[in-house]
Design a protein that fits this description.
Layout lengths: L7 H16 L4 E2 L1 H8 L3 H9 L9 H9 L10 E2 L1 H16 L7 H7 L7 H8 L4 H13 L20 H6 L3 H6 L14
Parallel strand pairs: 1-2
Helix pairs in contact: 1-2, 1-6, 2-4, 5-6, 6-8
Length: 192
């Protein structure tokens, strides 16, 4: 699978999840592998802390328990499971809507709570990292200029916060008119 759409932090998380699954003789990479791998990715840990998880390492125990219940098949090749593939699609869409050029570990982390029945989402909820808290923490990190979260071209701005794509490809004519930057005569030949 081509991971060009992943930022270095996202790629590190996915590759580490694959290595975890291979080391445990589990052919299918599950969300639990991915979340456990993200505990070693600084950007994801920082987002978890910002969302109120005092010690992200507390997520390891419920994730380990969930992984122990998964089937083992020694010698099988490792593949990304359906939930992980769905998460990658969701994270790509989320990153694009936020104006980011690539999918970071933070985008992946934001998508895990959407798989509400997965043990990974349950572990996040148990640690207090709900989707609204993660979203708020992510927004604070993007708004902070010292943050390492890549906003990318056309990222949400104060005037286009709700529609980054519109802000990227269009001009706010109302704001331009209010600032006196539009020619009031163009298109009014009949009136002149």
């Amino acid at each position: 699978m081509n991971f060009d759409f992943l930022a270095p932090s996202g790629r590190r998380a996915v590759v580490s999840a694959q290595k975890l699954a291979r080391a445990r003789d589990q052919p299918e990479v599950a969300l639990e592998h991915l979340l456990l791998a993200m505990l070693d990715v600084e950007a994801a840990v920082d987002l978890l802390r910002a969302a109120g998880v005092a010690s992200p390492a507390t997520l390891a125990a419920p994730l380990e328990a969930a992984l122990a219940a998964l089937p083992k098949q020694p010698g099988e090749s490792v593949y990304l499971g359906g939930n992980v593939l769905r998460l990658l699609d969701i994270a790509q869409i989320d990153a694009r809507e936020r104006g980011a050029a690539q999918v970071s570990a933070e985008h992946l982390l934001l998508g895990i709570p959407l798989e509400t029945r997965s043990p990974a989402a349950a572990a996040l909820r148990g640690a207090g990292a709900t989707l609204p808290k993660l979203e708020e923490a992510f927004k604070r990190r993007v708004a902070d200029p010292a943050s390492e979260v890549p906003a990318g071209p056309g990222a949400a701005t104060p005037t286009g916060a709700a529609t980054p794509t519109l802000a990227r490809y269009a001009r706010d004519l109302t704001a331009l008119a209010a600032a006196g930057k539009l020619d009031p005569v163009i298109g009014r030949d009949d009136e002149i």
